[in-house]
Specification:
Largest sheet: none
Strand content: under 5%
Distance between the termini: 11 Å
Pfam families: DUF4235 (PF14019)
InterPro entries: DUF4235
Helix content: over 70%
Number of strands: 0
Structural class: mainly alpha
Radius of gyration: 17 Å
Number of helices: 2
Protein name: DUF4235 domain-containing protein
Length: 88
């Protein structure tokens, strides 16, 4: 029964992680590149290298933040219920 409660919690944690990742990427990109916005793949004013580096950095940051928020949610769930959310 407790695992049913984890689904909505994990959805909220995941959404919050996405927001945090977006904020983190913007701040890191601004500090590293000096630009306000990262280049879009279709922006002709940027080179292939700039577009690919921006996309790779964004993916790495999103992946790390997603893993951290999901892990924190699972640990918090365990502390609250005594169960690990993915165990059968």
């Amino acid at each position: 029964m407790n695992k049913v409660l984890y689904k909505p919690l994990s959805m909220v944690v995941s959404a919050a992680g996405g927001v945090l990742a977006g904020i983190a990427f913007k701040q890191i990109w601004k500090r590293v590149s000096g630009e306000e916005e990262a280049p879009d793949a279709t922006d002709r004013d940027f080179t292939w290298t700039q577009v690919i580096v921006a996309a790779a950095a964004q993916g790495a940051i999103f992946g790390a933040v997603k893993a951290a928020t999901e892990r924190a949610g699972a640990v918090g769930y365990r502390k609250a219920t005594g169960d690990w959310p993915t165990e059968d």
